[in-house]
Every structure is written in structure tokens, then in C-alpha cells.
């Protein structure tokens, strides 16, 4: 009769590997999910607080085709985009949008890293804004 060889192993490597994997998964998730704002909620905030700055990070051509009322334009693709953000008041509240939400999410991540205290990403961008029949300026 053969004896079964049982090797005693520690659970520590497995736990560490699981923690590592969990960390990698969470790093890939959208870091702006808690700052997303739906178009109706954004419209309400803009109506209630006239001090909110609406920031359009699309190209000048996209902006000219239609934009939110009072929106300032700051082209995400400009080489000096990051430096342009440095000129903005970090204490103000911003609603940032693009066409569908991708560029604005990246812009918000950059703004957060620069110390901006109150930034919101218009979920779905101007596309969602228009789908919800919110007004645009042409």
C-alpha cells in the first residue's frame, strides 16, 4: 500500500494572488463613475446654480454644430489642453461633456489629478443630452 504524499501549502500565496487580481480589475474600471451625471440632473443643476461652468471638450467644429448654452470650449485634442486646465479655477463646479462621454471622462480624470474639487461628467455627452430633448445652441 502506497502512502499518499500530501504537501502542506500555505494559503498566503493564493490570497495574495486574489488580492492582486482584484486590484487589477478595479484599476480598469471607470474612475469617474461617481462623478457621472445624467442630462436631466445636469440641466437641473445648471438651472439652480448659475455659477456652474459648463465645459465642452470637443473640437471647435463639433462645438459649432451645437453646444449647451453658455458652454466654454476647450479642445481636448489641443496640445496645450492640460496647461489650459491649469488656468481654470479649481474651486468652481464644472459639468464637462463631449460627444458621447469618453473625452470628458478623460478630461475629468486629469482635472481630478490637478486638484479640481467639483467636476461632473455629462453621462452620454451631448448625444444623450439631445436624446433627452434638452436644448442646444446652434
Fold and architecture overview:
Helix content is 41%, strand content 13%. With 138 residues, the protein is of the alpha/beta class. The chain has a single domain (32-131), classed as 3-Layer(aba) Sandwich (Oxidized Rhodanese, domain 1). It has a five-stranded parallel beta sheet with strand order 1-5-4-2-3. It is globular. It starts with 11 loop residues before the first helix and ends in a 7-residue tail after the last helix.
Report how far apart the termini are.
87 Å
Q: Biggest sheet, in brief?
A: 5 strands, parallel
Number of domains: 1
Q: Spatial order of the strands in the main sheet?
A: 1-5-4-2-3
Instruction: Kindly provide the name of the CATH class.
Output: Alpha Beta
Radius of gyration over all CA atoms, rounded: 22 Å
Helix content: 40-55%
Order of helices and strands: HEHEHEHEHEH
Mean of all residue-level pLDDT scores:
84
Using the alpha-carbon principal axes, give the shape: globular
CATH architecture call: 3-Layer(aba) Sandwich
- Total strand segments: 5
> Which structural class matches the secondary elements?
alpha/beta
Number of helices: 6
CATH fold type = Oxidized Rhodanese, domain 1
- Beta-strand fraction estimate: 5-15%
Poorly predicted residue ranges: 13-33
CATH superfamily: Rhodanese-like domain
Write the layout of secondary structure elements.
Layout lengths: L11 H16 L8 E2 L1 H10 L4 E4 L3 H6 L6 E2 L7 H6 L6 E5 L4 H12 L4 E5 L2 H7 L7
Parallel strand pairs: 1-5, 2-3, 2-4, 4-5
